[in-house]
Amino acid sequence: MSHTVKRYKGIMDWLTTVDHKKIGIMYLIAGTVFLVIAGIEAILMRIQLMVPMNNFIDAQTFNELITMHGTTMLFLAATPLLFAFMNYIVPLQIGARDVAFPFMNALGFWTFLFGGILLNISWFAGGAPDAGWTAYTPLSTDFSGKGVDFYAVGLQISGIGTLISAINFIVTIINMRAPGMTFMRLPLFTWTSLIMSVIILFAFTTLAVGLILLTFDRLFDANFFEVGAGGNTVLWQHIFWIFGHPEVYILIMPAFGIISEVVATFSKKRLFGYSSMVFAVVLIAFLSFMVWVHHMFTDGLGPIANALFGVATMLIAIPTGIKIFNWIFTMWGGQLTFNTASLFAFSFIPTFVMGGVTGVMLASPPADYQFHDTYFVVAHFHYVIVGGIVPALFAALFYWYPKMFNRMLNETLGKITFWTFSIGFHMTFFIQHILGLQGMPRRVYTYLPEQGWDIGNLVSTIGALLMGFGVVVLVINVILTHAKKADAPADPWDGRTMEWALPSPVKEYNFKQTPLVRSLDAFWYEKMNGNKEMTPAEPPGPIHMPSPSILPFVMSVGLFLLGLGIMYAQYDIPNDFVRMLFHNHIITAIGFIVTFGSMVVHSLFDDHGYHIEVEELEDKGVKA
Fold first, then answer.
1. I need a labelling partner for 31 at 20 to 30 A (CA). Which of 254, 303, 305, 623 fits?
2. Cα torsion angle, 347, 68, 163, 161, sign
């Protein structure tokens, strides 16, 4: 028997939800906020570099901006925004009612959010981290303020969220597929989400180890990276880059999946070479752990190490090239539709190729010695990350927006965003290749005039402002779209995968009856056979649903307090009462009790969820 369902209204509904669709929307909102913050940080840096000998911001602030911009963009904007689409879409694509562990899904979101908040509090708590997003030792241990503590602790808390979300997606995709949904019928976005999650499993655990060691060095006087006491600074670089290079594939994987979905839909064709695409994705994931030393060619590891890792890095270009040709062949001879989503997807291909070409250049150790600390490297990784992930995210937003919010974004404003952002992007970063080859070093907050860098930096800054304008237009687009009434069709793009078989907005239980998958591009197959919806695999029956819970939120607050307490126990605090709270470990204890208390409560009180009965399904169709 089902028991009465706890239903909350308003803000409590969002704080307690375990529905993958609502969690996806929360990831989208939080990720967008962090994206805007990191974008403002970038624009401030570009204004400082607009003209030589500028004093718009000082050197210390510039170092804080460069660190927070990189850290926020990678950990708190790009990853969560990809998680937003994964959360909402993957269960729908595989015919599941929810993810495997709804409670953990909510916990993953709230730990990410509180970790991100903790990191950004550092601006108001005596200085943001200033050792670069890579936090190289001994810069981050001996020559940095307490901002790096916020970096180490904030990223550990946020990383817990990323790790448990990855575990959740792995179990969901392997275990929760609808009947007939074999692995070789999975939509490519689901495949890439699975592979991304597997990479996270191995990469983020490495990062966690590194951050714990860094925290111990900084707060408890350990000597892991302290050369004078027998430690090793290069150890941090190895630990960081064994995480850091797979991290870029963590980000680009779901982007590959998004591009595959959008290109196939708007070419009106099945994706060319589906099985080779899957093979290429798996190969990239495998190789991504074998290339980290190309970030360290100038460390002096010797010619054998440099040669091996140089070759391994060049190898990764092969599976990536397979994907590029598959997308081109999918478009070849297709009926192409040019709208905002497809423009972003099509533009991704040449931009990403340009980023990849400079990557192969940097994979050559002798060349890398020349490029290493110049703007050439900055241009390279922004071409891959901004030129790869951001167009994919924008494409996903315009493509799945009608499914997520039951509204169509305005196409005219969308195309303005596309053109201003794309032109601004190439203006900002293309010229940085040339600046780098002319010898402009990275991470400088100003430079002398008449070195041939003045025009390049001015153009770069104008481009950055243009990108900012494109994002502002997108925000206006979203606001105007939500002022209109929600009336998007269920299948506006004539889609190929199962999420388009569902009504918009999607019901909280997703599928009334579990669908039967009979082919790759399951919904397209049904439409070609004259069906309006998916063929059910079972008769209608009661649907089991998980109950909402406030515990993930409470547990994350506990972790937040625990992190603050551990850091501030070491600091000098002017206020007597606050100092007493932190130095006597009272805040740490409260955080510990709240976190582990929530775990105990969740373990001891079994919540079996509730059922939606068949009569209710026929009756009113429960709203998501």
1. 623
2. negative
- Three-point CA angle 285, 518, 516, nearest 5°: 100
What is the DSSP secondary-structure string of 314-343? HHTHHHHHHHHHHHHHHHTTS----SHHHH
CA distance 86 to 208: 23
pLDDT in tens, 597-621: 999 999 998 888 899 988 888 765 4
Closest by alpha carbon to 69, among 163, 149, 5, 133? 133
Structure tokens at 22: 């609502």
End-to-end CA gap in the chain: 22
Kind plus residue range of the DSSP H or E element containing 624: none
DSSP state of 449: S
Average pLDDT over residues 494-498: 95
Tell me how far the alpha carbon of residue 212 is from its chain's centroid.
Answer: 22
The DSSP secondary structure of 556-611, one letter per residue, reads: HHHHHHHHHHHHHTTS--SSHHHHHHHHTTHHHHHHHHHHHHHHHHHHHS----EE
Average pLDDT over residues 103-118: 97
3-state secondary structure of 536: strand
Tokens 């992190």 map to which residue? 563
Q: Which of 419, 432, 431 is nearest to 466 (CA)?
A: 419
Cβ atoms of 138 and 474 closer than 8 Å: no
Phi, psi (deg, nearest 5) at residue 583: -70, -25
Nearest Cα to Cα of residue 246 among 212, 278, 294, 209: 294
In DSSP terms, 566 is beta-bridged to none
Tokens of 133: 């997003």
Q: How confident is the model at residue 8 (pLDDT cuts 50, 70, 90)?
A: confident
Residue 236 in contact with residue 225, Cβ under 8 Å? yes
Rounded distance between C-alpha atoms, residue 512 and residue 508, angstroms: 10
pTM over cut 0.90: yes
Query: pLDDT per residue over 277-326, tens digit each?
Result: 999 999 999 999 999 999 999 999 999 999 999 999 999 999 999 999 99
Read off the DSSP letter of residue 515: B
In the block, tokens 């998980």 appear at: 546
Residue 1 has pLDDT above 50, yes or no: no
DSSP letters of 30-93?
HHHHHHHHHHHHHHHHHHHTSSTT--SS-HHHHHHHHHHHHHIIIIIIIHHHHHHHHHHHHHHH
Whose CA is closest to 477, among 555, 550, 421?
421
Position of tokens 């026929």? 618
d(CA 555, CA 551): 6
Segment holding 543, helix H or strand E:
strand 543-545
Inter-CA distances, 351 with 163, 312, 512, Å: 30, 23, 42
